[in-house]
Amino acid sequence: SISRLQSPHLFRQQCYLGGKWVDASGGQQVAVDNPATGEVIGHIPDLGRADIEQAIVAAEEGFKIWRGYTAQQRADYLFAWYELMQKHKDDIATLMTLEQGKPLAEAKGEVDYAASFLRWFAEEARRVYGETIPGAKPGQHIVVTRQPVGVTAAITPWNFPAAMITRKAGAALAAGCSMIVKPAEATPYTALALAVLAEEAGIPAGVFSVVTGDAATIGETLTGSPVVRKMSFTGSTGVGRKLMRQCAEHIQKVSLELGGNAPFIVFDDADIERAVEGAMVCKFRNTGQTCVCANRFLVQRGVHDAFVERLAKAMSELKLGDGFDEGVTQSALINRAAVEKVCEHYRDALGKGARHVSGTAPEGARGNFVEPVLITDVSSDMQLCQEETFGPLAAVIPFDTEAEAIAIANDTPFGLAAYFYSRDIHRIWRVADALEAGIVGINEGAISNPTAPFGGVKASGLGREGSRHGLDEYTELKYLCMGAE
Ligand code: ADP
């Protein structure tokens, strides 16, 4: 419980806006619970439209101050924030495990990963370069600068309660923008702890705010304001599409990181040991609840049995339990609906001819705890091939030829991550070119890091986060045309 915290002040049940900690003006609150136990952790404000409008006014004030700072000053604040996250790693991880469920070791890993975005963008802040272009007429000079877009907003999901915020806010603040974050209902306390640390780092009032409450109301208020110039969203395709429509009203810039349906292809010439290692990392991180989790294992027939056997063995070593218990690697799914989705995908697949290989069938789940389960003989007509399972169900599709694998891999509206294992250099180039995905892991199952551009194609989204490209989402080019004397 909260009594595990070394610094209890990191647990805040108020929102942070305009540099102040506030309740809803009408006093409304909503409860937040622990997905492993069902216990209520605490309450958060259910802010109304007027409260959000206040946050926007404060963010506009914050922006005016922040944009006037030098890049070096902004970098120093981001570094201070980064260091505070490191200092309080254990507490942030505790809050995260409490509200999200992930194993404590993974939560600590996420704090490191999340903080790394603040460090990365602190470093990049001083490199928001422009360019000069030879004039179009004699004596003319053309200069291009990058300006912050202004007040920005972020709506984030529950699966990475810290990292999905820092990779947006790090870039926004480095570029000179202010940002209002609406975290997922399920995981507000990690977000509010980040706000406590932003305040401690001395980041000026209104530059970084965290608001909680009804998602649709907050989304409508943020996109309904001409002051907000950019919306960055990570979450489901349905909500992303809706927000993109809403952003049309005031022509707000929009970045979307939506669902995936990652294929993980193992060719006959793959190093099977390494493929199994990569598969475990990429399928079972966060108990299968990441948007880059392998959703479909495509395995060539020559290595099918060997791969399936080794994967089953590796899966049998996973340990399911409360995220706070020692040695646990798989923990509670976020809620009952998540459990039901895994059950449904499993039932649908078996009903259409898939074969159970190992693990306990998800119907046997106690509470939100689903055992890792492996099935094979999966085919494209099954539900799990159309949409993300977001749980510990590993599904294998056998295939014969490279062309067949590519066709199956691309047969989805999504295009976030894709993975494949091969040792043939020509095949590696061919397949890397042919996969319709924003991110391709080649003999690698862990592809997320702050130095590389993260994002998808097709219905998986727009824009990139992390890397130097992540900053582009928060700047606009301004071209200065200097006439001849
Ligand atoms: P998930 O299925 O992962 O929960 P969602 O897209 O529902 O994905 O949630 C991602 C984020 O979007 C959360 O912060 C959630 O509160 C928010 N959200 C949900 N519905 C809306 C909406 N209509 N407008 C704005 N934000 C929304």
Output the strand order for the largest sheet: 14-15-16-13-12-18-19
Report on the biggest sheet.
7 strands, mixed
Mean pLDDT: 98
Q: What is the percent of helical residues?
A: 25-40%
- Taking Cα atoms only, what radius of gyration do you get, to the nearest Å? 23 Å
- What is the oligomer described by this structure? single chain
- Give the structural class: alpha/beta
- Portion in strands: 15-25%
Number of E-type strands: 22
- In whole angstroms, the N-to-C terminal distance is 71 Å
Give your account of this protein's structure:
With 485 residues, the chain is an alpha/beta fold. It is 39% helix and 21% strand. The protein has 15 helices and 22 strands. The chain has helices at 49-66, 71-87, 89-100, 104-125, 163-175, 188-200, 215-223, 237-248, 272-284, 301-316, 336-351, 383-386, 402-410, 425-434, 469-472, and strands spanning 15-17, 20-22, 29-33, 40-45, 131-134, 141-148, 151-155, 178-182, 208-210, 228-234, 253-257, 262-266, 294-300, 355-358, 373-376, 393-399, 414-415, 417-421, 439-442, 457-458, 461-462, 475-482. The strands form 6 sheets. It has a 7-stranded mixed β-sheet, sandwiched between helices. A 6-stranded mixed β-sheet has the order 9-8-7-10-11-21, with helices on both faces. A 3-stranded antiparallel β-sheet has the order 5-6-22, with no helix packed on it. α9 (272-284) links the parallel β12 (262-266) and β13 (294-300). α2 (71-87) packs antiparallel against α4 and α2 (71-87) packs antiparallel against α5 (163-175). The longest helix has 22 residues, at 104-125. The protein is globular, with a radius of gyration of 23 Å. The mean pLDDT is 98. Bound molecules: adenosine-5'-diphosphate (ADP).
